[in-house]
Write a sequence for this structure.
């Protein structure tokens, strides 16, 4: 798949992984696994970019005697998901057109 | 590899990044490894799942904008004394024009390199286009010669057309390969430049440590 396209899609996936409740790195990877295989090294820059563009916030909390980073979606992040859903329905129409049999 | 070894190696490879950036990265991978171990995985396996340290470092450098790396390189590693600050201010008319001219020269060099690169590409493909076009024209003229009753000429021109066509096909394949290769080289140059800017921080850190010990 086109690299840029995949990047954008992965960003939306990560946002979706945290849309219902805040989550942490490893859990995000596990939640995405049945749908999309993502490595830690791929996830890290995505989380950084999402934080820099204000689509999620980070907080550190204690867990079993060590610090864990928890990621929470923001309003901007939710808006991004909505945009994706809208774009997707356009994609479906385009796909129909491309694959349709025309006499 | 143990977690400590992995993190230590990663820390080394990331020298050149600002301390907060480096620390965030190490915290992230530490957390990822610990979470897997908590899930029941062996530490060595968890570390292996993180991937190759050099690749991780490369990916992070690629993501970091050059400006950040330059800023980090240029930052003074210890607090400046009042005298040093005053000296810098006074000498401003000396070092500022030099800095500006260096920046302009660097910029000029980069632009010229890209200009040369693109001119070469354009030239190569223009030559290719010319040869391909001449092949087509030769075919047309050779048929005209045939109709004008000059079969010898026609054959000559047709022969040339075939040679030119073959040549342009070979050139096309060759130039495409060259273009792909130079894009790869370009990427490597950017990463290499970033590494260069980030590079010698370790040795200057050690020099600082040496100075402090001497003062005691």
């Amino acid at each position: 798949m086109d690299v840029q396209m995949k990047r954008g899609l992965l960003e939306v996936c990560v946002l979706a992984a945290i849309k219902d409740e805040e989550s942490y790195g490893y859990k995000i990877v596990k939640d995405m696994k049945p749908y999309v295989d993502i490595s830690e090294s791929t996830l890290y820059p995505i989380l950084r970019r999402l934080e820099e563009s204000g689509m999620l916030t980070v907080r550190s909390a204690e867990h079993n005697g060590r610090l864990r980073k928890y990621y929470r979606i923001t309003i901007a992040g939710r808006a991004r998901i909505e945009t994706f859903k809208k774009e997707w329905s356009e994609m479906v129409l385009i796909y129909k057109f491309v694959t349709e049999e025309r006499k | 590899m143990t977690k400590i070894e992995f993190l230590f190696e990663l820390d080394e490879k990331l020298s050149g990044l600002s301390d907060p950036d480096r620390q965030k990265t190490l915290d992230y991978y530490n957390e990822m490894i610990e979470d897997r171990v908590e899930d029941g995985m062996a530490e060595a396996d968890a570390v292996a799942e993180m991937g190759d340290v050099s690749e991780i470092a490369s990916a992070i450098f690629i993501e970091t904008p050059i400006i950040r790396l330059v800023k980090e390189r240029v930052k003074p590693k210890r607090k400046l004394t009042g005298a040093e600050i005053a000296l810098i201010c006074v000498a401003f008319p000396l070092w500022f024009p030099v800095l500006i001219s260096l920046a302009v020269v660097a910029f000029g060099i980069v632009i010229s390199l890209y200009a040369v690169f693109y001119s070469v590409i354009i030239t190569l493909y223009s030559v290719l286009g010319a040869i391909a076009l001449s092949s087509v024209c030769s075919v047309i003229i050779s048929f005209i010669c045939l109709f004008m009753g000059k079969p010898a000429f026609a054959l000559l021109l047709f022969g040339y057309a075939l040679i030119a066509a073959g040549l342009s096909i070979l050139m096309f394949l060759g130039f495409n390969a060259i273009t792909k290769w130079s894009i790869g080289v370009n990427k490597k140059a950017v990463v290499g430049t970033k590494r260069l800017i980030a590079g010698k921080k370790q040795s200057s850190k050690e020099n600082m440590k040496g100075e402090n010990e001497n003062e005691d």
Observations:
- The longest strand of chain A covers residues 56-63.
- The first helix of chain A runs from residue 3 to 17.
- The two ends of chain A are 30 Å apart (CA to CA).
